[in-house]
Amino acid sequence: MKKRSLLAVTVLLCASLFQAFAEPSPELVSAAKKEGKVVVYSITSRIAPAAKAFEAKYGIKVEAYDLKDGELIEKVTREVGANIAGADFVICQDSGRVYGQLIAPGYLVNYVPDSMKKVIPEEYQNPLVFQFINKVFIFNSEKTQKPVISNVWELTEPKWKGLMQFKDPKLEGVNANFLTMITSPEWSDRLAKAYEDLYGKKLVLTTPNAGYEWIKRWFKNGLILGNSDTSISENIGIKGQKAQTLGLFVYSKTRYEAAKNLALLPMTEVKPFSGFMYPAFLQMTKNAKNKNAAKLFIEYLLSSEGFAPWSKNVGSYSSNPNVKIDPTDHPVSFWAPRLVFEDPQFLFENRADVEEFVNTLEK
Q1: pLDDT per position as a tens digit, 10-45
Q2: 59 near 52, Cβ under 8 Å?
Q3: Do residue 255 and residue 356 come from a single domain?
Q4: What's the whole-number mean pLDDT along residues 100-117?
Q5: How far apart are the C-alpha atoms of 157 and 311, rounded to whole Å?
Q6: What is the rounded average pLDDT of the residues 177-205?
Q7: Does residue 253 sit in the same domain as residue 353?
Q8: Does pTM top 0.85 for this prediction?
């Protein structure tokens, strides 16, 4: 019995590995080569080296355009809505807007390669997640290596006034999404409990729930809104500062610590969250002209080879769990219970209210 069980496990493991690293079907490769071209709109500039490697491997020309998330959404809406030839597939983020403005109207079409259907976790297949990116509370570590907070409510206290930075949510949808998500029933309940755990008393609300309350107190405590995560990382990490500073920004920026002589350390055990994580999706367009080349490129991007431009640094995680991460990083399974994840439908239905609320705080 034990031998049969071990054999069964071995067969399953081998099948999984085969599916993870199987080459695309010869029929798909042949059909894609006949099309000879594929057009992609992407919110990540790393599509350029990936496109170059794909062209070298298959001899299929790639037209890759690097766009901001809002630009991509508007361009796809306009082109597909008018049946104008544009992108064959997209790498897009800002899940609430993508869900409401591109997926629900049918402008984007979900496609999961057969080789990935038993590899990528089912919850990441529709819409198909390409990668996850995280933003984490990171502090200046020149004077101390010890985390400077353990609970997010500490950031509403006077000692942190004017010492925190966060990218302006009006400039990047994912930051507005984070603020929206913490007003959800799940996260507002967690925030209420975290307040009680820290102070030993119940939170007295002046807003609809604990999520709104934390946002209000955080913003009113001198939160500095920056123009980019890069500049924020430099402002926080620069050495020689008199006061202790911290920010909530892209975890991947810690890779510049040595090159820019910065002092940066992330905090991973803050209650009830240490930051947030958001997805970038792979979606075909409804009127894709080069469907087979798009399918082939999507399958390539989900492989270890195709994801190489992203996996070389911390803070970027393929939806394919077989793609190795940077050895100094943690897998998505580590981050999942520690970070706020996006719910596209909740975001689509509630973000406008949160944005309006935040606007009142900045006046």
Answers
A1: 333 444 444 445 689 999 999 999 999 999 999 999
A2: no
A3: yes
A4: 97
A5: 38
A6: 98
A7: yes
A8: yes
Give the residue numbers spanning the domain of 197: 133-277+348-361
What value does the CA radius of gyration of the chain take, rounded to a whole number of Å?
Answer: 22
Tell whether 7 is covered by a domain.
no
Same domain flag for 165 and 208? yes
Instruction: Tally the domains of the chain.
Output: 2
- The candidate with the shortest Cα–Cα distance to 297, out of 44, 17, 57, 129, is 57
* The predicted structure's pLDDT at residue 148: 98
| Strand bridging mode 316-318 / 129-140 | antiparallel
First to last CA, the chain: 71
Secondary structure E strands in the chain: 37-42, 61-66, 89-92, 108-109, 129-140, 164-167, 224-226, 246-250, 264-266, 275-285, 316-318, 340-341
Does 308 score more than 80 pLDDT? yes
Please compute, for residue 339, the number of CA atoms within 13 A of its CA located in the half-sphere on the CB side. 31
Would residue 336 count as lying in a domain? Answer: no
For 74-112, give one letter per residue: b (16+ CB within 10 A) or e: ebbeebbeeeeebbbbbbbbbbbbbbbbbbeeebbbebb
Rounded alpha-carbon distances, angstroms, from residue 8 to 12, 16, 20, 88, 201: 6, 12, 18, 41, 54
What is residue 4's predicted lDDT score, i.e. its pLDDT? 35
Burial of 48 (0-12, 13-18, 19+ CB in 10 A): middle
* In a shared domain, residues 229 and 273: yes
Q: How far apart are CA 76 and CA 72, in angstroms?
A: 6
CATH number at 110 reads: 3.40.190.10
Distances (CA, A) of 258 to 254, 261, 342: 9, 5, 32
Both 111 and 166 in a single domain?
A: no
Q: Do 177 and 255 belong to one domain?
A: yes
Say if 190 falls within a structural domain: yes
CA atoms within 13 A on the CB side of 257: 15
Residue 185 corresponds to which tokens in the numbers above? Answer: 């029933």
Q: Which two tokens stand for residue 275?
A: 């930051």
DSSP-derived letter for residue 262 is: -
